[in-house]
């Protein structure tokens, strides 16, 4: 099976390069590769796909700067809303399947129980709106697909809350973190490994055939916490593992109103992962167990 992976250095793309390797030939392209693939440029998308002619396209690239998207909404929409539709069209043209990632930020955040795939959406910011439009474009085109909504992604590479907190905890005596937004932090490696399992369970030799199981799935770690709760565990586990000195920093819980940002974020965006378990028997560990596993990896 020939898999075109879009993205090379992003948090999820980096992990996918390894996780997908057993499933076939992985061609990973980004804006700097040969051929280059720039999601903001429809011609580069179409040219690369027609040249590679993959059996499966996995799109792990996106415009992910949530606050900056409020200023750069046109670019965010080109990458997150228009490009996925073009990917789906090209997938259909070359007979390929498409796996694409979306976000918990498509939900309004006024719920109190985990959001299911078919719950009403209502993004609170430009990034969320752009990602939702991308999902809808893929469904509209009708190529065999999975849209995998994940949340609060972190890992050892890239820009993420874990690495930001580790830096701030080394630099500052006090780190103030919002305690009124709830979600499920999800380790990038587990997203990649679950994706590989989904591909394996949906492929027959070189063909990606999800059949009736195609569609949208939530794929996040279990449990829930606030950003402050996440930061507390990062501090505890990192000290425990000797990644931070014992006497560094103190954490203070604050309301979102004390941490103003250009983009509004949902107050509650926990995802229900039941559909993934029902259809594929896959379940990711709880977020705090996954955080420990991820930090174990920092030692090497
Ligand atoms: N990060 C998170 O917390 C969450 C992410 N998601 C979704 O998961 C997916 C993976 O996200 P994640 O791994 O965190 O992403 P990252 O922010 O780590 O990386 C984004 C990647 O997209 C690439 N990219 C940006 N613009 C373009 C472009 N115009 N053309 C080609 N590539 C581009 C970047 O490439 P370059 O190196 O060239 O900049 C980078 O490799 C995305 O769909 C995202 O929306 C969902 C929920 C949470
Ligand atoms: C750095 C920092 C952030 N915060 C707050 C701001 C914000 O409400 C929250 C998280 O900040 P971040 O900028 O890391 O998170 P954010 O960019 O909103 O993360 C989101 O990214 C996109 C791509 C997604 O799809 C979402 O699932 C989610 O992971 O923490 C503090 O309270 N104190 C701090 O020192
Ligand atoms: Mg961010």
TrEMBL record:
Q: Which UniProt key words apply to this protein?
A: NADP, Oxidoreductase
Q: What is its EC number?
A: 1.1.1.133
Q: Name one GO molecular function term.
A: dTDP-4-dehydrorhamnose reductase activity
- What biological process terms from GO does the record include? dTDP-rhamnose biosynthetic process; O antigen biosynthetic process
Q: Where do the RmlD-like substrate binding domain residues begin and end?
A: 1-298
Q: Does the keyword NADP apply?
A: yes
Metabolic or biological pathway, per its Swiss-Prot or TrEMBL entry: Carbohydrate biosynthesis; dTDP-L-rhamnose biosynthesis
Query: InterPro entries of this UniProt entry?
Result: dTDP_dehydrorham_reduct (IPR005913), NAD(P)-bd_dom_sf (IPR036291), RmlD-like-bd (IPR029903)
Instruction: Spell out the Gene3D superfamilies in the cross-references.
Output: NAD(P)-binding Rossmann-like Domain, UDP-galactose 4-epimerase, domain 1
- Which Pfam family, just one, is annotated for this protein? RmlD_sub_bind
Gene Ontology CC, one term = cytosol
**Catalytic class of the enzyme:** oxidoreductase
Report the cofactor remark.
Answer: Binds 1 Mg(2+) ion per monomer.
Q: Does the keyword Cell cycle apply?
A: no
- Cofactor(s) for this UniProt protein: Mg(2+)
Q: Which reaction does it catalyse?
A: dTDP-beta-L-rhamnose + NADP(+) = dTDP-4-dehydro-beta-L-rhamnose + NADPH + H(+)
Which purpose does this protein serve, as stated in its record? Catalyzes the reduction of dTDP-6-deoxy-L-lyxo-4-hexulose to yield dTDP-L-rhamnose.
Q: Which family does it belong to?
A: Belongs to the dTDP-4-dehydrorhamnose reductase family.
* PANTHER family according to UniProt: DTDP-4-DEHYDRORHAMNOSE REDUCTASE, METHIONINE ADENOSYLTRANSFERASE 2 SUBUNIT BETA
Q: What is the protein named?
A: dTDP-4-dehydrorhamnose reductase
């Amino acid at each position: 099976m020939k898999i075109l992976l879009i993205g090379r250095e992003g948090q999820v793309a980096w992990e996918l390069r390894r996780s997908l390797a057993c499933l076939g030939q992985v061609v990973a392209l980004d804006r700097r590769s040969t051929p280059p693939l720039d999601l903001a440029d429809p011609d580069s998308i179409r040219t690369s796909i027609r040249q590679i002619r993959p059996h499966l396209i996995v799109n792990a690239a996106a415009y992910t700067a949530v606050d900056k998207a409020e200023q750069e909404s046109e670019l965010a929409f080109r990458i997150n809303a228009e490009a996925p539709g073009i990917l789906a069209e090209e997938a259909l043209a070359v007979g390929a399947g498409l796996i694409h990632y979306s976000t918990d930020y498509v939900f309004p955040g006024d719920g109190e129980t985990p959001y299911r795939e078919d719950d009403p959406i209502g993004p609170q910011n430009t990034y969320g709106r752009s990602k939702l439009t991308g999902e809808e474009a893929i469904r509209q085109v009708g190529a065999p697909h999975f849209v995998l909504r994940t949340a609060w992604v972190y890992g050892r590479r890239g820009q993420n809350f874990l690495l930001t907190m580790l830096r701030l905890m080394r630099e500052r005596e006090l780190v103030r973190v919002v305690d009124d937004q709830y979600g499920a932090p999800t380790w990038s490696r587990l997203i990649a490994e679950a994706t590989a399992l989904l591909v394996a369970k949906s492929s027959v030799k070189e063909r990606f055939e999800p059949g009736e199981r195609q569609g949208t799935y939530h794929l996040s770690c279990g449990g829930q916490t606030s950003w402050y709760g996440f930061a507390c565990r990062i501090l505890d586990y990192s000290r425990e593992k000797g990644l931070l000195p014992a006497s560094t920093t103190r954490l203070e819980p604050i309301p979102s109103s004390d941490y103003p940002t250009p983009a509004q974020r949902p107050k509650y965006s926990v995802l229900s992962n039941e559909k993934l378990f029902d259809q594929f028997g896959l379940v990711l560990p709880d977020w705090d167990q996954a955080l420990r596993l991820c930090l174990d990896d920092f030692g090497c």
